[in-house]
Structure formats: C-alpha cells, structure tokens
Design goal:
Blueprint: E1 2-3, H1 5-12, E2 29-32, H2 39-49, E3 52-55, E4 57-59, E5 63-67, E6 82-83, E7 88-92, E8 105-110, H3 122-127, E9 129-130, E10 133-142, E11 148-153
Helix pairs in contact: 1-2
Length: 163
C-alpha cells in the first residue's frame, strides 16, 4: 500500500477499537511518499498498526530513485534507502564536489530515468545539472553502508494538498 504522509496522520488520529493486524496478513509494509515523512510518524504507525513504513523517494524529474524496504535486514528507520540499480546518486557540496559519507550536501541523481530538459527552458535545465547529475534541491547524506537520508529542502517548498 502506498500513501502520502497526510493519510498516515489521519490514520494515527482515528480510533480503531477493533483493529486486528491478522485481518490484513498480506500487507507487509506501507510505502509513503510525495512529501517528507517524519521518523516519529514511521514509529507511531508501526506501533499502532504493526506495520513498518518505508520512505518512497523520487522527483517529477527522475521518477522513483531509491528503495526503502523495511522488511529487509539492516533497514534504517528515517532513511530513504539505497538507490535503484539504474541510478548513480551522490551528495555534492555547494561547490559541486562530492562529499564524504556522513556529510550533508545536495542529493544529485544520474541515470536513464532522469529527465532530459524543461520544456522550452534550457537555462533552467542547465542550472540543475552538474556533470550529468540532476541537482534535486534536497539536502541529505549517505551513510557508510550506502543508505541515503533526506534532511530537508535547500529552499522552502509549499506543498498544497496531499502532503
């Protein structure tokens, strides 16, 4: 099942007196995307419903780029997981240089699923590309195991509805 964070907020604030996890045995976990997912919501959902919540990460310009499967060994709550095999993902500093694991920088994505331009706006496209990597505008870091974490947007973002 895939949802947006506002659905989890609603579910967590709805009383379920007769909830029985055994009534949905084939649901392994919930995927949540389209907006940042606070780790507290992940933990509260797992506690209330007995279901882990995996972060879904991707952008309109890239489609999905990371897999965060909470049923896998070594899963890290709060992460966005590891990149899909088709993507090369790096963390760049403001000078466009790759940073070491654990250091926060901008998430940059390369791969065949990354868009090839903004319609009639080559200047905007050139501003978000660095050495064939798409600069997402998202800050994050990669740990020593290759797991990525989203921290926040570089610039303010207003999400209207759904998020």
């Amino acid at each position: 099942m895939e949802v947006v964070p506002s659905v989890l907020f609603s579910l967590l604030n709805t009383p379920y007196k007769n909830y029985d996890r055994l009534r949905i045995p084939h649901l392994n976990y919930i995927g949540c995307g389209s907006a940042p997912l606070p780790i507290e919501i992940q933990k509260k959902t797992e506690k209330k419903f007995g279901l882990a919540v995996g972060n879904l990460y991707g952008l309109s310009e890239t489609g999905p780029t990371h897999v965060d499967n909470p049923t896998k060994d070594g899963w890290q709550e709060g992460s966005i997981g590891k990149p899909l095999d088709v993507n090369d993902v790096k963390i760049f500093n403001d000078d466009g240089k790759e940073v070491a694991p654990g250091k926060i920088g901008e998430i940059a994505i390369k791969g065949p699923n990354v868009f090839i331009g903004y319609y009639k706006n080559a200047e905007a496209y050139n501003c978000v590309m660095k050495n064939d990597y798409f600069l997402t505008g998202d800050l994050g870091f990669q740990d020593e195991k290759g797991v990525f974490y989203f921290i926040e947007r570089k610039k303010d973002l207003i999400i209207k509805g759904g998020g």
